[in-house]
Amino acid sequence: MSTLSFYLTGIATLIVPLVGKLVFALIVWLVGKWAIGKIVGLLEKSKGFSHLEGTVQTFTLSFARIGLYVLLVISIIGILGVETSSIVAVLASAGVTVGLALQGALSNLAGGIMLLIFKPFKLGDYVDAAGVSGTVKEVTLFYTVIITVDNKHITVPNGTLMNANVVNYSTEDLRRVDLTFSCAKGESPARIQALMQEVMAGNDKILDEPNPPFARLSGGTNESMEFTVRAWCRNDDYWDIYFDLTQRITETLAEAGVKAPAFRVVSEGK
Length: 270
Prior knowledge:
The protein is α+β, with helices and mostly antiparallel strands. Helices cover 53% and strands 21% of the residues. The strands form two sheets. The chain has a five-stranded antiparallel sheet with strand order 4-3-2-1-5.
C-alpha cells in the first residue's frame, strides 16, 4: 500500500463515521422538531389544558417547548460523540461567567413564575406597566407580549414587569370616568352643575352605584372656573361614557350659551 493510499484510508476512516453521525443527528433533529410540535399541539388541545387560565396556558406551552428542545439538543450532542460530562465540567469551570450571562434570563424566568403565582393580570387585560400600555396577549417563559391600542407588538421581559408598578384597568367590574371642564369666571356654578347633571342623567350606561353621578366646581383661575365630572360605569362601557360625556357636555354648555375661556377637557384617568 502506497503512502497516499494509507493517508486516504486513514482520512476515510475518520470522515465516514463523522458524516454518519452528522446525518443521523440531522435526522434526529428534524424528527425531534416534528415530534415537539405534535406534543405541544396535543397538550394545547387536551381537555384539562383548556380549563387553565390563559396566562398559565401560554407559560406552560413555552416551558414545555423549551424543555423539549433542551432534551433534543442534549440527545444530538450525545449522538455526535460529545460526552455530556465534559460539557458539565466546562460549564462548572466557567460558572461565574455563565452565571453572569444567564442572570437576565434567570431573572425573567423567576419573574414569569411570580407572575403566574400572584397574577397581577391575565390574558386580555388592559394594563399600564414598565412604561407600556396595552392588552396582554401572551405570557411566555421569559417575556410577556402586550398589544398597544394602535396594534404595536411589544415584548416586555418578565423580570422587568415583576419589578414594575402594574396598573390593571380590566380587573374590576366597575370604573369611574373623571373629566374636567372649564368655563368663564362669570358663569353661575349651580347652573353649570345642573347642565352637567342633566347630561349624565340622560345616559343609561351611567350607574348610581357605588356613587351617583357627580358634577361640582373644583378649581379655577382669574379667568376661568373648572368643574369636575365623575360617573361610574361598567368597565366595558368606560370609553363609550368617556367620549359621550366629553362631547355631550361640551355641546350642552355651548347650546346653553355658556361663555369660554375654553371648553378644555382634561382626563384624570385612562
